[in-house]
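Hypothesis: this fold can be encoded by more than one sequence.
Test: take the structure tokens below, design a sequence, compare later.
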């Protein structure tokens, strides 16, 4: 019997492939594409003159679960390929509400990019809200969580300017349908 799932976890795909399982199918891209896919998009903005980063550095903030860590590793690998460094890498225990210590590090040496791989809407909303009180000249990217309606309810105007994505979202048009 075929099994289809939408768990965006690369470890599941690897397990199926390594064990010769032929009846389980992944219905969407895995989490690594949040990192692998974002960097070429970011580079295209730079190449087109749509965004000029304040530096070629990134702060990567991950929660301490395999999913988030996988994304953090993928984005760091892709950033390195284009000559960026990641002087700030932090792992937090989710859920997290107090981002003060991490934001202190970010504000001390503002990176061009802040890439948050925690996926919990409340965590990301509190990060955006606390960041907005004293923002740095950094592009703020948060994966998946901003697609959850609760995020906008919590973040309010602090969500303005946050870049985000989801690997399973569809556009509300004919192509998306």
């Amino acid at each position: 019997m075929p099994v289809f799932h939408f768990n965006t976890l690369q470890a599941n795909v690897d397990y199926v492939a390594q064990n010769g399982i032929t009846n389980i199918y992944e219905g969407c891209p895995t989490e690594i594409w949040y990192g692998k896919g974002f960097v070429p998009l970011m580079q295209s903005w730079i190449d087109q003159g749509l965004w000029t980063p304040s530096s070629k550095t990134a702060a990567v903030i991950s929660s301490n679960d395999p999913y988030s860590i996988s994304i953090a590793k993928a984005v760091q690998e892709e950033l390195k390929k284009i000559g960026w460094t990641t002087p700030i890498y932090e792992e937090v225990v989710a859920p997290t509400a107090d981002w003060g210590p991490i934001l202190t590090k970010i504000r001390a040496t503002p990176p061009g990019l802040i890439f948050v791989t925690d996926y919990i809407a409340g965590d990301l909303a509190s990060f955006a809200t606390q960041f907005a009180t004293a923002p740095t000249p950094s592009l703020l990217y948060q994966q998946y969580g901003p697609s959850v309606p609760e995020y906008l309810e919590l973040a309010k105007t602090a969500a303005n300017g946050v870049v985000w994505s989801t690997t399973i979202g569809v556009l509300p048009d004919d192509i998306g349908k």
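The radius of gyration is 17 Å. The longest strand covers residues 85-92.
Hypothesis status: open.
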